[in-house]
């Protein structure tokens, strides 16, 4: 196994965190800088239906946030305690996810599987992630040798890797943002699709995040959304 030439790396920041792709051999927590995670992608095939779309996550890049005042306002509201920000830098945005390594002999099969699973508006991109190796099995010599070859980021000191990722870009037909947490929560609280309830998608994502030792700090947007969805569900 060499990191660049064999197999593929895939980043999960939503359902892929708790429902991994098939046939992976390694799962490593990772941080992506320069994006914020939002439930602004509608779902008609997993957590909703064409008549009643649910909401799933996508990643909003720094340049789109800077171009779109309502995206920036949303960041300020949920991630910056409401304090105005004039000079948001890509490194101010960070999202926790996990990367999976799929070996070469399974790469085509897994890519085909993911292309179908992520078809509702997501497209395949490449991003740089910073690996958090604190939980990695250091006795796995093959993995450690592959990781050793990776460059180290000058600021974070973490190993960086370029990985595949499925993103619902802001101009895809299923993008619904920006929505307030209250609007998104009212959709998530009640919707159901072929993969299960929209509430379970959010719950499993929040539980996975909570169980990751990597998470130095909590995702305030996710926490707030989960609380609001639970509040609505208590009133039903
Ligand atoms: C992902 O998990 O990385 C993509 C978004 C999703 O399918 O929830």
Layout: helices, strands, pairs:
Elements: E1 8-12, H1 15-18, E2 26-33, E3 35-43, E4 54-61, H2 62-67, H3 69-79, E5 94-102, H4 104-117, E6 123-131, H5 141-148, E7 160-167, H6 181-188, E8 192-193, E9 196-197, H7 198-211, H8 220-235
Parallel strand pairs: 1-7
Antiparallel strand pairs: 1-5, 2-5, 2-6, 3-4, 6-7, 8-9
Bound molecules: succinic acid.
Please characterize this protein's 3D structure.
There is one protein chain. With 236 residues, the protein is an alpha+beta fold. It is 34% helix and 25% strand. The strands form three sheets. Strands 1-5-2-6-7 form a five-stranded mixed barrel. Strands 3-4 form a two-stranded antiparallel sheet. It starts with 7 loop residues before the first strand and ends with a helix. The mean pLDDT is 92.
Instruction: Give the strand content.
Output: 25-35%
Largest sheet: 5 strands, mixed, barrel
What is the β-strand count? 9
Terminal CA distance reads 52 Å
Please count the helical segments: 8
| Rg over C-alpha atoms, rounded to the nearest angstrom | 18 Å
Bound molecules: succinic acid
- Secondary-structure element pattern, one letter each: EHEEEHHEHEHEHEEHH
Shape: globular
Low-confidence stretches: none
User: Whole-number average pLDDT?
Assistant: 92
> Which strands sit side by side, in order, in the main sheet?
1-5-2-6-7
The level of helicity is 25-40%
Alpha-beta content class: alpha+beta
